[in-house]
Amino acid sequence: MAVYTNVDDAALGSFLEAYDLGTVLSFAGIAEGVENSNYLLRTDRAHYILTLYEKRVERADLPFFIEVMEVLANSGLNCPLPVPARDGSILQELAGRPCAVFTFLDGTWSRFPNREKCAELGRTLAHMHLNCAPVTRRRPNALGPHAWRPLLDSIGDKAEVVGDGMKDAIADRLHTILDAWPAGLPTGVIHADLFPNNVLFIGDSLTGVIDFYFACDDILVYDLGICMNSWCFEPDGSFNLTKSRAMLKGYQSVRPLTEAEIEAIPILAAGSAMRFFLTRLYDWIHTPADALVSPKDPMEYLGILRFHQSVSGTAAYGIGL
């Protein structure tokens, strides 16, 4: 979450005339994240999230995201639901951006999730993968492997901002990952951005999942690689095998992995690290100076990439331990 587009009181008041949400008590931007503009809207009836879609989110994809959230909510997962306007419509426009209002979920995210939270995340991720089966719309992964080389090319020599020789070094590593990318693994709807700040807890109990705006169709276990990278590395860059093992066991308690999926975890995790390194590097270079957002440091994911390059075999990730 973030704020790129400012909404003044007059524009907000005009926009909310289409809704029946009650009297506004407060309205404030949320600075977390890097993709869309998000505001916390408090009324005398409830709390809501107003999202203005920016950057990598295409208007044509919004019905897919909304269907995914509705299907998961109907399956029992606590995730934001769109709030319709009086005429029943979901998607609106505000400040020149497509937008929507969503329900607010209770809970807080954990900056340093423990083993119990990692296990909860694994179980929830598996349920999400299974319960998205009824989704009828399709959305290819716009930031999948086919997009990484063009993204690196678009960054070009600006990659040197984080280190001399970085463009060539990343190009070599990317070539290795793409050559080894697996085919024929189970696919379906994945979240594709399930970082700790998109998962809410009360204590160690998972209370909600948010921010589905990278959801897409892709290899299911790739989603698990994304989560391992974002949940199982410590602030000093070390990999926490205990957390990884808990997450994998939690996932497999709901959806057991095939042997081929297990064998693919190292390359899928490396690919996930490459994807987020490249997008973070792009954002690091291109985020407007006046945006209410702090771009994520790409060097964190460079370290994660190097970890995956340094290990061999699935035992390094807690499989079978």
Report the strand count. Answer: 9
**Tally of separate domains:** 2
The CATH class label of the largest domain is Alpha Beta
Q: Give the SSE order as H and E letters.
A: HEEEHEEHHHEEEEHHHH
* Strand order in the sheet with the most strands: 1-2-3-5-4
Main beta sheet: 5 strands, antiparallel
Unreliable spans are: none
CATH structural architecture of the largest domain: Alpha-Beta Complex
**Could you name the CATH homologous superfamily of the largest domain?**
Aminoglycoside phosphotransferase (APH), C-terminal lobe
**Could you tell me how far the N terminus lies from the C terminus, measured between alpha carbons in angstroms?**
36 Å
Shape verdict = globular
Residue share in helix: 25-40%
Whole-angstrom Rg:
20 Å
Percent strand: 5-15%
For this structure, the CATH topology of the largest domain is Aminoglycoside 3'-phosphotransferase, Chain: A, domain 2
What is the number of helical segments per DSSP (H or I, 4+ residues)? 9
Q: What's the pLDDT, averaged over the residues?
A: 92
Class inferred from helices and paired strands: alpha+beta
